[in-house]
Design a protein that fits this description.
The N terminus and C terminus are likely disordered. The protein is mainly α. The protein is globular, with a radius of gyration of 33 Å. 52% of the residues lie in helices and 5% in strands. Among the domains are: 229 residues, no CATH class; 106 residues, no CATH class. Strands 3-4-5-6 form a 4-stranded antiparallel beta sheet. The chain is built from 26 helices and 6 strands.
Amino acid sequence: MRANERAVRLAEHAPAVTGQHADSRRDFPRAPEESSWPGSLLSAQEIITRIGAPPFRPANGTGYRRHGTARILEWLAVFPGDSWQQRWKAAGAEDLPKEGWLDLPMQWRQATGLSTAPHNRDGLQTGLLMLVCADIVRPSLDWMVRKASNRIVPVMATCRDPQGYAALRDLIGADPDGITAGQARLALGRITMILACKGGLVRDITVGDYLDLLDAMRDTGTGGAGRLLAYRLLHALGNLGPDAPVTGRAFLQAAGQRPVEELVDRYQVQCRPVRDLLVEYLRERQPAVDYNTVSNLAGDLVRLFWADLERHHPGIDSINLTAEMAAAWRHRISYRPVTAVAPGGDPAQALVPRAGARSVMMTVRAFYLDIAQWALDEPYRWAQWAVPCPVRETDCNRAKHDKLVKSRMDQRTRERLPLLPALARAVSQHRLASAAQLEDARQTPPGDTFTSSGTTLRRLPAPTAYTGSIWASPAEGGPRTDLTRQESDAFWAWAFVEALRHTGIRFEETPRAQPPQHHPVPAALHRRTGSPAANRAVQDRRRKAAAGQPRTRRRPQRDHRAHPRQYRRHPARARLRHPREDLEPAPAAAVPARHLR
């Protein structure tokens, strides 16, 4: 059967997708990701000249934005690419958390002998802000939504689209329901994220762009505050089209469990027959597994397997891979590229093992073997896709995987063990400093200042009626700190480090460890005086011992009572205890007793 005939047959057998989910998302196409546009092709001098002129440079500006832009362009220029967007992607900044990308250019500056003063970090951050607002680079939405920035909204409103933001603020002011300042700030932040990552003006935002924002927020697990108001404002401007729903809640309701077709289509598979095969395979697996498993299968089979093959072998239309193609894919899935700074200061690409490579290979192997098995039962559906599996059995060897995991664990131990004394000193000093700071704050009335560990703080009134916590902030202004919580966290960090250091147990075993409980000692062991009836059991044992009579067999006394029955049945849940000075070595340390409070 030919491939196009296979596609027709799969389409005939596929059930129609109905409901709000299909209507609300399929009718609005997504814009493909661009790697270059006119703004990204400008020269460095043209960009610096543009940033040094209004509206990017305020009337009272000092040129700080222009200097920051020059610094980040200087760093991006060392990466390959025909546009600044391609160089930004090659830099690998989006592989790091949004707060940590500045480490890459600072490491490069240090390696090249340039200044690494703290003001350079601020300059680089300002330079990236200018490149984004000037539409020179467009970060991905997955990277942008991880942490919102309060600086980008006013700069984008001034430099990119003053008329669009003015229209949005007019809608906010005229809203009959009354939009608070906090709600407006969050909504404008969501709209600004779309502009930063998609380019254009406010009137150019489409429903597909909004759906990309929702997907990025869901994939990264970020909060959804402001997304509904952002859609309401965009819809009120009248630029989303007549088919756009009145409220964005329709997309949120539809974004629960996606049909199999959408799980596959989100990766934009080019070969239609293979796309239909993947859809039918996932439908066959769907009744026996939950939705999360189906979604993970789609990610492994489509994104990490077939989409990767299409990206490296354009025009591929068969899952029957050659030996070279299979070996190349196994190597790509086994290692992931990272960007590091070479000794000479130039960025270099390095390959590190991918943690989930074995799981992906097992999924692909199961895909091929399932089709081969199903072809025996239903040859008219699966026989033409029964081809040799590109993943060998040795690639999924559990013993080899366990050895690699053990090797990585041992290597981490070897690297970190020399730093254990420094860690113990650091947590101990932090505990003592936090306790001293809290005690100084207790002696200070609310509103007054005090100095602790060389830092001048001002004690703040309790934010609520609950007065269990003591708050303070720097005397010259700054974020407030819960000193009570800080001291508690410092103590427990020290307690964990000391317990693990002296007992030698692994951190994974700590949830099973129970704090020692002091049970009452039997009264007969403590009473030395009193009525004869109270000491009768002790006197009887002494009399039998003096007469040479055999004593009643009993369990030997211990320094603590026996554990309850459930703990005797589960030795792994044994409680920690204090060491005995007469039996255990001096270096043994007890678990801190403060957790009994």
